Amino acid sequence: MKMKRILVTGGAGFLGSHLCERLTEQGHDVICLDNYFTGRKKNVEHLIDKRNFELMRHDVAFPIYLEVDQIYSLACPASPIHYQYNAVKTIKTSVMGAINVLGLAKRVKARVLQASTSEVYGDPQEHPQKETYWGNVNPIGLRSCYDEGKRVAETLFFDYHRMNNVDIRVIRIFNTYGPRMHPNDGRVVSNFIVQALRGNDITIYGDGEQTRSFCYVDDLIEGMMRLMNTDSVIGPVNVGNPGEFTIKQLAEQVIYFTGSKSKIIYKPLPSDDPRQRRPDISLAKEKLGWEPVVPLNEGLIKTIEYFRDNLE
Ligand code: NAD
Ligand code: UDP
User: Which atom of ligand 1 is least distant from the CA of 36?
Assistant: First the structure.
């Protein structure tokens, strides 16, 4: 394989740190760019001494001047509590961030991959979701800064591709979990595991009958790298695990695998919380030869192990 210079924006975050690790192991020269809003140096500290890894503090809302062959655009807070903390900043990160990586890609003729999301489907009226579904998104709700920001980013990617011939890839990531999720991240898998390990109540929002499909991080990163390195499709491509679970089933599995005595309690459902979500991954199977191999129980056990070792 030819070694490349690769920029990973949001590289100190949950997904970014796993990606930087894989790319560094393959021998590429990796630049990890992050403003540390939700990311942590700790996530990549094991890479810092490697000669082919470099950390750069920068905000993607401002132009980036580097020379690289590939760009993975991951910078953006992903959990509702973090992306709603400063909604306007979240939109700037998605939109200005997309313009800046696309401008960079155009100048240096790099291939650029956008980490988009299943949230572009909103509260979906088609189930499971195929890439051809246009979505059902509230443009003015609490989740809109994230959902619409990601939708505009996709638009920008396709317009730069059509108008400026930029070499793009767009991945639509479905709920992904695993080691290095932030313990206060607020997403459901990390919340439930941390609550169970601390013996606190497990907080189900709503009746717990809403569904999600959870993908283990190693599977997701494999799919993302295959999309970046294929010539057979530019996207958007769904990457996620089609195993669909209710939030109540997830809570029960976490209690079972942690052996916790925590009780389940119910809290109000946040507004615009999608009722159901499951990826149709036929396109990823056909074009990338990819499908997930880690089932939820196995992934939960690994994630629980990580939190056991890392919670003070
Ligand atoms: P994360 O919050 O752990 O990582 C995001 C990273 O981006 C953090 O390191 C953060 O500090 C950095 N960042 C945020 N704003 C920035 C800015 N303005 N400039 C530079 N860096 C900035 O989240 P994650 O789960 O690793 O998600 C990574 C990407 O994947 C995001 O774009 C997210 O939208 C997308 N995604 C994730 C999931 C998931 O389930 N994990 C699902 C769909 C999409
Ligand atoms: N959720 C929950 N308890 C929590 C955190 C989340 O019941 O402590 C629910 C949330 O309302 C949603 C689902 O779990 O229905 C997934 O939430 P998450 O924030 O992980 O992802 P997203 O809603 O963005 O898919």
Answer: 11
What is the distance in angstroms between the CA of the first residue and the CA of the last residue of the chain? Answer: 41
Pocket lining: 173 vs ligand 2, CB cutoff 6 Å: no
252-261 long-range contacts, CB within 8 A, separation 24+: 253/296, 253/297, 253/300, 254/189, 254/192, 254/193, 254/196, 254/202, 254/300, 254/304, 255/196, 255/202, 257/297, 257/300, 257/301, 257/304, 258/193, 258/196, 258/197, 258/304, 260/196, 260/197, 260/199, 261/199
pLDDT of 1 strictly over 80:
no
**pLDDT single digits (tens) 190-241:** 999 999 999 999 999 999 999 999 999 999 999 999 999 999 999 999 999 9
Report all structural domains of the chain as residue ranges with CATH numbers, in order of start. Answer: 5-177+216-242+276-293 (3.40.50.720)
Q: Which listed ligand is nearest to 120 at the C-alpha? A: 1
Q: Is 146 a catalytic residue?
A: yes
The reply to whether ligand 2 has any atom less than 6 angstroms from the CB of 272 is no
pTM here is 0.97
Phi, psi of 67 (to 5 degrees): -115, 115
- pLDDT for 54-93, tens place per residue? 999 999 999 999 999 999 999 999 999 999 999 999 999 9
Any atom of ligand 2 within 6 Å of the Cβ of 204: yes
Indicate if the pLDDT at residue 49 is higher than 70: yes
The pLDDT of residue 199 is 96
> Of 72, 83, 121, 146, which residue is the catalytic one?
146
